Amino acid sequence: MKLALWQGVSPLSDLDLAVDQAERALRAAGALGAAALVLPELWLPGYNQPDMAQKGLTHDSVFLARLAAAARAAGCALVMGYAEREGARLYNSAIAFGPQGETLAHYRKIQLYGPREKALFTPGDQYSTFSLSGETTALLICYDVEFAPHVKTLADQGVRVILCPTANMQPFTHVIRHSIPAMAANHGLTIVYANFCGSEGDLTYLGGSLIAGPHGEVLAQAGETPALLVAEIPARDAARLSTQSADLRLP
């Protein structure tokens, strides 16, 4: 299975521009044979937008419908972060559209990061898993994937791929350099970590989006500018897989 990610600059609340970029990336990923494309956290409308509360999308949004149609046209699944409006509540969410345009999964970020996110969003309270090209797959968002208990729980449920929109900014370079490959290796799964690049308001994003394989290898990694990454996911080699989960002993 091939997996892809798009690392881009924030669309700055221009939802038409955001969807246009997603459509172009989907066409390219589909042409390259990717089973799925992952976009950054809160791609709609952008992570650090002052009008976030006004930009929340409901499930019947025309922008989500356009993206479902684009996934169908490309024959490539799409995972994208967006601000979800449900009544008076706003969620930091991710949605997965399948290659036929169907909704495969929907997830709300559990681990809200920092005072701004906690003031804006209601936290999620459940995982979301689905089948992608025969592999049990889950969605996490940014800070979620830095918590080993979440990754372990999913791995113990048979998850083999985590698709993770993110908005990782300066100075947290340790996440892309060390945390993501370590999480993948320690739990024997693939992580696709799709980040922003460039600046947005008072934030400077790290870029460095990566695809880490189940033995901790970095299969593909972006620099600090927009990039489309596509990587073939290797078969899991039992002799190289971590046995941490089975071996864990607590005093």
What does this structure look like?
- The protein is α/β, with parallel strands linked by helices and 251 residues long.
- It has one domain: Nitrilase/N-carbamoyl-D-aminoacid amidohydrolase (4-Layer Sandwich).
- It has six helices and 14 strands.
- The chain has helices at residues 15-31, 62-74, 114-120, 148-156, 173-187, 244-247; strands at 2-7, 36-38, 77-86, 89-97, 103-108, 129-132, 135-139, 161-165, 190-194, 199-200, 203-204, 210-212, 218-221, 227-232.
- The strands form three sheets. Strands 5-4-3-2-1-14 form a six-stranded mixed β-sheet, with helices on one face.
- Helix 1 packs parallel to helix 2 (62-74).
- The longest helix has 17 residues, at 15-31.
- It is globular and about 50 Å long.
- It starts with a strand and ends with a helix.
- The mean pLDDT is 97.
Descriptive keywords:
6-stranded mixed β-sheet, 251 residues, Nitrilase/N-carbamoyl-D-aminoacid amidohydrolase, alpha/beta, globular
